[in-house]
Amino acid sequence: MGDASNMWSSSFGPGIWANKDEDKPPPGSGGHRSEGSTSLEAILATFIPTFLTAVITLLIFLQLRGRYPNIYSPRTYFGGVPKKDRTPQQGLGRYDWLNSFRTLDDRFILRHQSIDAYLWCRFLKTMIFVCFVGCCITWPVLFPVNATGGGDSTELDRISFSNVTGKKRLYAHAAVAWVFLGFVMFTVAREKVFLRELRQAYYLSKPVSERLSSRTVLYMHPSNKTITDDDLERVYSEGARKHWVVTDVSDLQNLVDSRNSNAMALEAAQVSLIRQIHKKELNSHGGELDIRNAEKQVRPSHRLFPLFGQKVDAITWFRDNATSDAKKLEDGRNGVSNSNTASGGQTAIFVEYATQAAARKAYHHLSFGRPLQLEPRFIGLQPKEVLWQNVGQGQTKRLSKKSAATALAVLMIIFWSIPVGIIGTISNLNYLTDKVPFLRFMDDLPGWLQGLITGLLPPTILSWLVSYVPKFFRKLARRFEPTIPQAEKLTQAWYFAFQLIQVFLVTTFTSGAAAVATQIAREPGMVPALLAENLPKASNFYLTYFILQGTASAAQNVLNWSDLAQYIAYDRLIDRTPRAKYERYTWMKGISWGTVYPKFANFAVIAIAYSCIAPLTLGFAAIGIYFYYLSYRYNLLFVIQTKIDTKGDAYATAFQHIFTGVYLSELCLIGLFSVRKAPGPSIMMVVLLILTILYHVTLNRLLKPIERLLPPHLRQEDEEAPLVDGDEYTADVHPDQGTTQASNIKRRAPGWIPSAVFDVLERLLLPDVNSHRVLKTWFEDPDALDEAHPNEDQLANAYVNPVLTSKMPKLWLVRDSAEISKREIDENEKAGISTTDEGAELDNKNHVVWDRRNGGSDIPIFKETVKY
């Protein structure tokens, strides 16, 4: 400890501990603190093991990548990935992928993944840029100011706010806050405008604009009056030409589940029989095998009740039940088509329009006086994104579920305060050793072990603890939201609130409270002042948190050991059928925006909030997020298949969350300046806070309408009507005149804002490179013409609940030398169950071998990805 203090003293020169111009503050105000600071030991104790872990993890990844391409490079060859979207790769060598990783830019992800995937990379890069610029602004000014601030802090705490004792020096912090926080707010505005232009270009790109989903609107809770095709234009606006009514068919869902379950059990039983007989053949060593006798010995059975139920022949039982369920389902479907629809029992309706322009006009237009005026509506939905069980629910039932789920989410956030608070206290145990007797054993531990306990242990436990929270939130949201994107956005909102409150605020305050526990016990009225003064001490936790996340966790994100271990274990020990092995091999990792955005938005919030209190956090955050960016970029190019598409909404929400960091930074500085009784810096921050609120409100007021609209002058080349004509939010100009975003903003701006301000904003926020006309070229892809299009039957039933259209699954057996599979296929076909054994056979070790050519696209149950 002494060596560390001497190192810092020699670095900053003599006389650093004295301030001749100003008096030292009283104990508890930051100038005096325990000599037990282990900030440097905590950093080193965290960095060394995590760095070594990261290096070892990456070496293992390089060794395994070529052996398991289905885990580490499926996007280069999988049949489930359209050929036009596959990432080019020279080979499966250890370093062959580096050339593609280096030469392909992020726009490749935009064209061949999704707009959300590209925006995720852009979000990480923007946060890195913000933190880097923050370092350039804060470090040259605040490091010297803090280091020579007159306090007696040691190690890394010496270059934080806690080492400043004089009032005059606080003007530097206030001035830097104005510059840096102003830059953050400008960046948020610029990204929101960029998103608007990018989405505009995306919607107008030819492949997207011509899709059925771009021309279809979902209206929730329509009138119970039966709608015919002749009534569509009158009720649902001009251009409506087709509709699909949604009704409550939850009773049929149980039949579908039972039918599919019995079919899969039948498949498993038949494959088991085939393998058992084939095993006896192998054991006979070429001798004559009595197949009917062998079958009696190994034919699978099934108990009607667990453990003690009657035994029945499994194949016959599951086959009969599957066909019985199919018959009941067909009868139930006829009942739905003959009664529910005719009686007007609809809970939602999908309406297809002739053009995207007509659909957009109907989606945006608020026509007061019509029965649908305030009903929720959605546009651009793929059929697979619809949560049919929720769309089929009545409004009252769905809203009651929403209220209950929201209450449960709030309770979850509150409940988690207890374990997270304990973790935050662990990170500052060294401050309590002289106050709490039973913790004095910490003083006898070596410095490296103290650093390990207070540095590495808390963030590791915290990361593990919070990993289960978003899964719970997602399950809650999917119980009532009508679509998967809506559920994911709600998950994002809930999880960010959790991250902000638990991972940041609770941890910060418990860490700060641990440092001054005895003063709080002695003077309860000083709680706000003491916590505000000791917030800088909690920054050490986040330094180690960023190290852990940016090194070992980022490397593990590439190695993906959990998926690898699961694949190896299940493929070799558990999966016994061709279908199970195929699905295990071709399963592609996804990415959940409701999980990743809140985590890294909170990273940015922490860095921004501490930017002027402990500027070192900006550098650690930049490095940590950079390594994560590299890991996610690799995954998006080679591994991940994006399965949730918010079309940029998650990106916009994340930048709304970034403002939280700005507010927290300003409020913390106001509190710190007030404690120091520095009126000048306090006034500067209060003024900045007021301006921030005005800026934020105005920004939302100006940009929110144009974020969700396509201006009237933008149209497809083959469309005559404007995209959004007559909407109250669009510019009142002739479609051919054109208009800029800035001119739209000017119309909605408060009158007291000078027009010249918007001329400057137009040049800063909307340079030519960010206009939708330029961005539209980003979506131009010659291979896009190869995209699979739905056939007529698929288009006709696109927005029909799958419960009403799904067929009995086609069974896939394994071919054997005794031709048992052929016999089972015949039996299934007689019962009306389609079955095949093509593309799978048993080898001489009785292992299932299936056709992996062309990434699994040659097998009989392969389904090509189709975008509606």
Automatic annotation (TrEMBL):
Residues 1-35 are annotated as: Disordered. Keywords: Membrane, Transmembrane, Transmembrane helix, Transport. GO terms for molecular function: calcium-activated cation channel activity. Residues 771-852 form the 10TM putative phosphate transporter extracellular tail domain. The keyword Cytoplasm does not apply. The chain crosses the membrane at residues 42-62, 117-142, 170-189, 405-427, 447-473, 603-629, 650-675, 681-699. Residues 402-673 form the CSC1/OSCA1-like 7TM region domain. GO terms for cellular component: plasma membrane. Residues 1-12 have a biased composition (Polar residues). It is a multi-pass membrane protein. Pfam families: PHM7_cyt, PHM7_ext, RSN1_7TM, RSN1_TM. Its main location: membrane. It is found in: Membrane. InterPro entries: Csc1-like (IPR045122), CSC1/OSCA1-like_7TM (IPR003864), CSC1/OSCA1-like_cyt (IPR027815), CSC1/OSCA1-like_N (IPR032880), PHM7_ext (IPR022257). This is DUF221-domain-containing protein. It comes from Rhizodiscina lignyota. The lineage of its organism: Eukaryota, Fungi, Dikarya, Ascomycota, Pezizomycotina.
